[in-house]
Amino acid sequence: MPDSAPVLSPPETPAPPRVTGTARHIRLTSHAGGQGAPAIHWAAASPAERGPVIGSTTTRAHRNVIGTHSGSYSVYRALAVAAHALDPHHKPDLTNTAPTDTIGPHPAWSEPGKIVSLDPWGAEIGRHFADGLAAGFDIRPTIAVTKAHVILPEIIEAMQKGRLKADGKVLLPSGGALVTKAAVEPVWHLPGVAARFGCSETELRRVLFEETGGMYPELVTRPDLEVFLPPIGHLTLYIFGKPADLADTSVELTARVHDECNGSDVFGSDICTCRPYLTHAIEECIQGAQRGGVGLCVYYRKEGRALGEVTKFLVYNARKRQEGGDTADQYFARTECVAGVQDMRFQQLMPDVLHWLGIQKIHRLVSMSNMKYDAITGAGIEVGERVNIPDDLIPADARVEIDAKMAAGYFTPGDAPTAEQLRHTKGRGLDA
Ligand SMILES: [Zn+2]
Prior knowledge:
By secondary structure, the protein is an alpha/beta fold. It has 17 helices and 10 strands.
């Protein structure tokens, strides 16, 4: 209870039960209780016209979105409040947190339908929404941009083998590569997301509501709120060279869009090519930046083709225990048996971050995925050369995955494997 609150009870009266927040009743969200919530005009040309995204819970009347900040971490924030470790009314002190590099604005920011899954103005709220902040609105950044050195054993090995050389600017003699990195939280404009997936906004809202167990009632009760902060993972960008060069089509851009695979990316599991592909892309990005170009790796939190790691491990077992063992011809079928689909990454929203960066041309796309290629070119971004993973970087047990993908339409500079060859591409057994 605040110090200034009047004491209404005599000292001997037991203290009221401790409650979270100020209200002791549940505040339903299905009524437009917000007077004074700024309007959001998605894709407006200036931040003033667009309006700030307000997803904080400190002043409910100011909220103009469904959901809250920090993606899936919003649940941990709720736990911190439940544990009385976090004051739910805490407002962030954003002193010195501004981006190290300014991104944009770029024309794509205000082209209708170009960006529907992030807030292009979300990095520099102190500059764009100073008036709103001064008026007491709890506006929070959804994008942060900083600097780092990244040190990877594969890059040090590439230096030892003479493929990479330190230049003191992009790559240090220690093996550290200098990067600008950005974290971007999802901010969905529901009408735009629905259009990308070819469904009606009403249908999208209803399915999001029902398939999350009714997590956000406003999806179906508040059609006036068009922006949703979904409880999903964010994405991270690593930029090698000058961020401003990303938007300059005359500067060679090497880029990879990478979907999370914790088992390989972090722990070095050898059943897939994820980490080798990522480190190969970083090597290509460093080389590109050293040639006077710019490099970009985008890391999307879409673990296990966005099916999640439990499903992924179940599929591994199903693949390796099936009759005949783990063969490339059954690679996609086993995933579909367990998950119902082969893949849930759906690359429809992926190009948004490229538009945020102002990218119009990728000179060298380090990816074999036809789905990523189709999404990028379908979004109007030109792709020059497609760079595949060198054969000697493919782990032995990952041959099943790579052959199956090439046969399914992934890019390969050579011939795709035939159905007969796929039957003979075999992975290790579970006990081997
Ligand atoms: Zn993987």
